[in-house]
Amino acid sequence: DLEQGLRAAMAGEGELSMRYQPIFDANTLKPLGVEVLMRWQNGSGEWISPAEFVPVAEESGMIVQLGAWQMDEVIAQLATWDGQGLEVGYLSLNVSAVQLARDDIAGRLLRALARHHIGTDRIVVEITETTLMSKSPLVKNNLAALEAAGVFVSVDDFGTGYSSMSYLKELQADYLKIDRSFVIGIGKNRSDEEIINAMVALARSLQMRVVAEGVDDAAQLRFLQSAGCDLIQGFLLSKPLTVEEVGALFDSAR
Ligand code: G
Ligand code: G
Ligand code: MN
Ligand code: NA
């Protein structure tokens, strides 16, 4: 089954890899960083979506080992890009509540950054609203340690969970990521547009930067620019890229 397959993929080589989806300045459209997205192509050549295997990895606890491996891989990759003179900016990492609750993820990340001489301000940790509201002391300690060290925190899929304004304020998250489901409604659904405007206003008042994800066409981009979004991510500007494609993009953007 999926769990056995994933266990084998983690033990072996080559089935798991990373893609990097660029995040752009909303106005200059200059790439400023990349979101790390895991990919799995199993032994039979089938691509299995992280939407399918991440929940399995979370339930089995494998996400701790998987996330630890990923973190070491991508920090090393960022150092490699630096060494090549490619200014890839920052890495945005999806981190699940299970990782924050069971691992010294803050310590692991800070050690990896120190080892590669990379500043903490080049990492954004993407968490969900549910994670933000966690009462687990380990989750709270990990997030507090990351923030104290200068790592940025982004609230992913914003608007799809139980959003709590007080938790947003308490953690002082740095980025708010508007979920794709609202972006899809631009030009079609007046209430989605109004929700986006309200989210931008909320983010402004909390001094958070706003990222819109899943931006697919020019009309969505125009709406989000005039709504005051700071950052844009989506297939209109770039799909998730391989290491080589990231290098080429940031090389040409210099
Ligand atoms: O990349 P894609 O759109 O297929 O991702 C689907 C879902 O899986 C998204 O919610 C995304 O946040 C999550 N995801 C993708 N890569 C990772 C990862 O490396 N770690 C974690 N925890 N979640 C991921
Ligand atoms: O939940 P999270 O934001 O981490 O999910 C990111 C996922 O969304 C990635 O797997 C990525 O492939 C997908 N994605 C990013 N931009 C677009 C887009 O413009 N359109 C669609 N359909 N999916 C997108
Ligand atoms: Mn994300
Ligand atoms: Na999202």
TrEMBL record:
Coiled coil: none annotated. Keywords: Membrane, Transmembrane, Transmembrane helix. Residues 1-254 form the EAL domain. It comes from the Bacteria. This is PAS domain S-box-containing protein/diguanylate cyclase (GGDEF)-like protein. It comes from Marinobacterium zhoushanense. The chain holds residues 607 to 860 of 870 of the full protein.
